[in-house]
Amino acid sequence: MSDETTDRIDWVQARGMGALAEKMGIEFTEFSVERAVARMPVEGNTQPAMLLHGGAYVVLGESLGSMAANLFAGEGKLAVGIEINATHTRSATSGWVTGVCTPIHLGRTLTTHEIAITDDQGRRCSTIRITNLIRELPGR
């Protein structure tokens, strides 16, 4: 792991991922403006049919996209999600899923990211797109 990636992972840990992401067991493994990667266990995040819950894919995707947008936004700014879309194409039933987040658009007030989520065999399970609005932090 590069020093820059380590510094960025430290940024995520210092900022916090939020209670929901932590409850779901999300772990960031790579983090930069250009590429963010995190994984999440299937166990504990399933629906009654023992498949990874569709909402769990979305939580992983939104966690990656929102954190990447906030890193891009920089000091004194806050990126907030305004739109998210998910297409689930395969069901994960065990192991881990991994999300790879890449920017589609990085603008002054909007960012859009795509998150490709795959299972342990590298098969795509879900594709998520999130748009975030960049604002000044409240009180500034």
As a whole number of angstroms, the C-alpha radius of gyration is 15 Å
Mean pLDDT: 93
Oligomeric state, counting identical vs distinct chains? single chain
Strand order of the largest sheet: 1-2-4-5-6-3
Main beta sheet: strand number and arrangement? 6 strands, antiparallel
Total of helices: 3
**From N to C, what is the helix and strand string?**
HHEEHEEEE
Specify the helix fraction band: 25-40%
What's the count of strands?
6
Structural class: alpha+beta
| Unreliable stretches covering 5 or more consecutive residues | none
How far apart the termini lie comes to 36 Å
Question: Strand-residue fraction?
Answer: 35-45%
Overall geometry comes to globular
